[in-house]
Amino acid sequence: ALHPVIINEIAWAGTSVTRNHDQWIELYNPTEKTIDLSRVSLKSLTTATTNLPLSGLLEPHGYHLIESNDTVISDIAASSTASFSLSFSGETLALEYEGTILDQTPELGVCLNWCAGQALGVFYSMERDDPYISGAQSSNWRTWGSMPRNGNNADGFPINGTPGKRNSIAYLIDPSGSALVTSKTLTKARSPYIIPGAFEIRDGATLTIEPGVIIKFAAYASLVVDGILDAQGTAQEPVIFTSLKDDTYGDDTNQDATSTIPQAGDWGAMRILAHHSTLDHVIVRYGGVHDSFPGYHYANIRVENADADITNSLIEQSNAAGIRLENASAVIEGNTIQNNTNANAPGIGIFVHESAAVIRRNIIAQNTVGVLIQTAGSDQHIVISDNTFTNNTREAIQLLEGYPTFSGNTAEGNGGNGILIYGGTLVRDYTLSRDLPYIANRVYYTLSEGKTLTIPAGVIIKFFNTSFSMYGRLNAEGTADAPIVFTSLHDDDCGIAGGCGNTDNASTTPRSGDWEHLSFLAGSSSSTLDHVIIRYGGTPFGVIPEKGALRIQDASISITHTTIEKNHTFGIWMSNSPSTSITDSLIQNQEPALPGQSYGVFLTSSSTPFIQNTRFKNNPTHIFNADGMSAYTDGGGNVWE
Fold first, then answer.
1. Burial, 612: exposed, middle or buried (Cβ in 10 Å; 0-12, 13-18, 19+)?
2. SS3 of 146, please?
3. Tell me, what DSSP letter sits at residue 506?
4. Helices (H) and strands (E) in the chain, counts
5. Residue 467 CA to its chain's centroid (Å)
6. What's the half-sphere exposure (Cβ side, CA atoms, 13 Å) at 89?
7. Bridge partners (DSSP) listed for residue 304
8. CA atoms of 298 and 289, how far apart (whole Å)
């Protein structure tokens, strides 16, 4: 160390209006050795009022508290007491060892009076920033920074300082408290750190954080990264970002015992605005102040117009999103993202907005929504793979807009164990994924003319009060072992071996008419349905228009190896469909609103389908010709039961 003993803190203004002469001085041993103070004295180099011989032993990293009388700090025992009176106009104090100055405060006149501290009704102490830099430098002193504090004065009121404890300035990442302009490494030895307000890592600066470091945020505080944040902990020693009220890590830093408890929204966000930041083995909790507070960013971590890697971490207890991506690119892998909830707005595990992302091998649990995707840009690459979604209040995944790929995900105990798709229009070619079931609930979906939607074998789409209109080409090609299923949200069976799971996580029973229809309209004539199951659709009887579960109008499509069953009133409804083909299929058990009023195939407006090797079973009317211009061509092999 530069000095074996240093002057560490000075309460030159006293402790209150009536206690302005209750002054105290704190010494500190920054070394690893015990220091004998018997040959050390503290004196003023500018007045004769202070000349104090010292005594006793000062332990490594220990404090020696000198009080002007024995009641200055009522609840902390003084190391020594002495009669002294520091001038409010400033002094230069020095520690001497047999005539040699070990340490001193700045020369009188370098600052207006004292170089830090404050009187004028607040009585803040003067704190040293760095114990390893000379105390003669005015830049090495700061005014007590409002948190934390330690001890009470003679009247029982809190001391505006930290006697006998680490200085408040030592909790700051940078002495300015507002910005880091040159690169710095935060060490576990000086942890925890406090961010009292908005703190910025400036462009060109890198903040490196050692394993085991704890950073706590005061109310509404935030970290804005315009440079680089490199926080790489370990499984045994993660880097912690949390609320100042959180005593789980770093003990009771705000020194209020249990009078406050941490909660979601205690602080703002870690806002990453520049490329190349890394968060690995970190814990981030209790952030996410709502957007209604100007300058706050609705997430624990917000990556905006930048890239970042977030891996092997715990992201929890946000007031809104655990992670929010805005025009960003991120790899989010191997994390646990949990308990991000909000009573007044959706709490989202990961919110991907107009961003590219690889989200894989995460546990996403007990949020309001697991992952929400809203990316209208067709060039955004989004991969959601091998994640485990459990006990999210609503759906595992919500897809507002975008064209992501899904694979290997599992979902259990969520409000919706699948991928909720919102109403809208597909404006590019897209291939669905054989993964979790898709859910379309009370929305209307459209495939644009000239575009192709491909549905691979094994995909399950569950509807409720929903229709899907095709103006482009639908290519739905299942297999005998892995058919494509269009069914009710309440259908746990799907007509397939082993069923298709309790997607709505409820004890509900499917009914015909739970959803509306698949519509093939002008522009969709090259569409194919092969090894497809369509069940529990059909607009309820008496609701206009009554169009059936499978509606083909001004188009002709190919239907093969397909089962159409348990739909309301109409299995297939055709209007102006001159060359639709239905082969090797099963059309059965359409459910009537009134006795006898349901139809396997309903033909109108010059519809002339070709039907071959198809079984009609338990339909009150198998095929109905509603006008004299419609008729079907019997290709043979059809069965009527």
1. middle
2. coil
3. S
4. 0, 64
5. 32
6. 3
7. 326
8. 6
Q: Is the omega angle on the peptide bond into residue 545 within 30 degrees of 0, that is, cis? A: yes
Rounded CA-CA distance 594/501 in Å is 32
- Residue 421 contacts by C-beta under 8 Å, 6 or more apart in sequence? 399, 438, 439, 440, 443, 445
Reading the block at residue 394, the tokens are 């609503």
Diameter of the chain measured on Cα atoms: 121
pTM value is 0.90
- Residue pair 517/543 in contact by the 8 Å Cβ criterion: no
**Distance between CA atoms of 407 and 309, rounded to whole angstroms?**
21
Question: What is the torsion angle, in degrees rounded to the nearest 10, for the CA atoms of residue 492, residue 493, residue 496 and residue 501?
Answer: 20
φ, ψ at 509 (rounded to 5°): -115, 130
Dihedral, 499, 504, 506, 508 alpha carbons, nearest 10: -70
Which residues on adjacent β-strands are paired with residue 474? 453
Question: Computed from CA positions of residues 157, 160, 166, 168, in that sequence, does the dihedral angle turn out positive or negative?
Answer: positive
Paired strand residues for 446: 425, 469
Strands 599-604 and 570-575: parallel
The residue written with tokens 């644009």 in the block is: 448
Closest CA to 243 of 259, 230, 261: 261
Please write the tens of the pLDDT for every residue from 501-557. 999 999 999 999 999 999 999 999 999 999 999 999 997 656 656 678 999 999 999
- Distance from C-alpha of 561 to C-alpha of 611, rounded to nearest angstrom: 12
Phi then psi for 171, rounded to 5 degrees?
A: -85, -15
Q: What is the pLDDT of residues 133-182, one digit of tens each?
A: 999 999 999 999 877 889 999 999 999 999 999 999 889 999 888 999 99
Residues 6 or more apart whose Cβ sits within 8 Å of residue 285? 241, 242, 243, 246, 262, 300, 314, 315, 316, 317, 318
Instruction: Work out the angle at residue 117's Cα, subtended by the Cα atoms of residues 113 and 120, and round it to the nearest 5 degrees.
Output: 85
Place of tokens 């892995």: 482
Are the CB atoms for 406 and 429 separated by under 8 Å? no
